[in-house]
Amino acid sequence: MSQPWAAFAPRASADAIARLPRLSGLAICEVDDELWLRGKSLDESLERQLALIPGGRQFELLADGQLIPRGKTVPRGRLPEGHWALLADWLDGVLSLPKIVHVPDRPERIQQTIPLRLVRCGVARESALLETSLAAFSAYIATAPQWRIDRWSFAASSDGVALVRGTPLPTLSGVQWAVDQGLFVPAGYCWEPDVESEVVRQSLKLEPGDTALLRPDGTWERIAADSWVRCTRSAVRLTTEAAQP
Questions:
Q1: Between these two residues, 151 and 18, which has the higher pLDDT value?
Q2: Contact in structure between 238 and 219 (CB atoms under 8 Å)
Q3: Boundary-marking domain end, from 62, 96, 130
Q4: Which sign does the torsion angle of CA 131, 87, 236, 165 carry?
Q5: Which one of 7, 21, 66, 85 has the fewest CB atoms closer than 10 angstroms to its CB?
């Protein structure tokens, strides 16, 4: 299909969507319990992959946003007008935490493959990352002491979220995260089963230098090593200006 196309699937099929290739121009939109995809063209390989997504449906996409179900000739419905993001960016944010091989304490027991999940725990660990708004961080950095700025690095998303790492953290509202070998979990949480952090990194297929945010809702976000920027007033200002519509 050389013309624009669209498809949708239930949110429960997110793992299947995560196996799609990170093609340029392929975009996704979350609408209630549905995930919508769109692209400029559709080759046979991608078409076969879309057909394997449970509960998925494919459409031809007209210039005015109308949808023609695959195999039909009459338009039915329109493409959602919600927030569209590149599939490559979305995949980094919604991938499910993996199942891992857990070796129980008694060696004679059989190994189990069980889901990794985050649970509340009583272990107090120092927060090493703050998730806050880029606008708030930009305003704070303008008057922050230089010795604090020198301790930080940051990463920012296109939707105005800033991640600041280093201690002590900025005194801003937001979510604080603890870290273990580049794996960030919200303060007060730990992963279960209690396996070594290196096992978790291998399960997430992280490259050296990559970090990851593990969220209690069962999703995680990869942050590539080159996404982190040494914190300076000019770097924060330029990033904030680039993020403005």
A1: 151
A2: no
A3: 96
A4: positive
A5: 21
Question: Among residues 96, 131, 163, which one ends one of the domains?
Answer: 96
Place of tokens 């091989």: 101
Domain containing residue 59: 5-96
CA 180 to chain centre: 19
- Tens digit of each residue's pLDDT (9 = 90 or more) over 158-194: 778 899 999 999 999 999 999 999 999 999 998 888 8
If one counts the domains in the chain, the total is 2
Cα(178)–Cα(129) distance, integer angstroms: 7
Work out whether strand 34-39 and strand 112-115 pair parallel, antiparallel, or are unpaired: unpaired
**Exposed, middle or buried: residue 160 (CB in 10 Å: 0-12, 13-18, 19+)?**
middle
Residues 131 and 203 in one domain: yes
**Diameter over CA atoms, the chain:** 65
For the question of whether the overall pTM of this predicted structure is more than 0.70, the answer is no
**Dist. CA 181–CA 174, nearest whole Å:** 22
Amino acid at 112: Q
| H or E, element range at 6 | strand 5-10
Amino acid (one-letter) located at 222: R
Contact between residue 88 and residue 22 where contact means Cβ atoms under 8 Å apart: yes
CA distances 180 to 58, 86, 98, 129, 156, Å, are 42, 29, 17, 11, 21
Q: Quick one: 163 and 45 in the same domain?
A: no
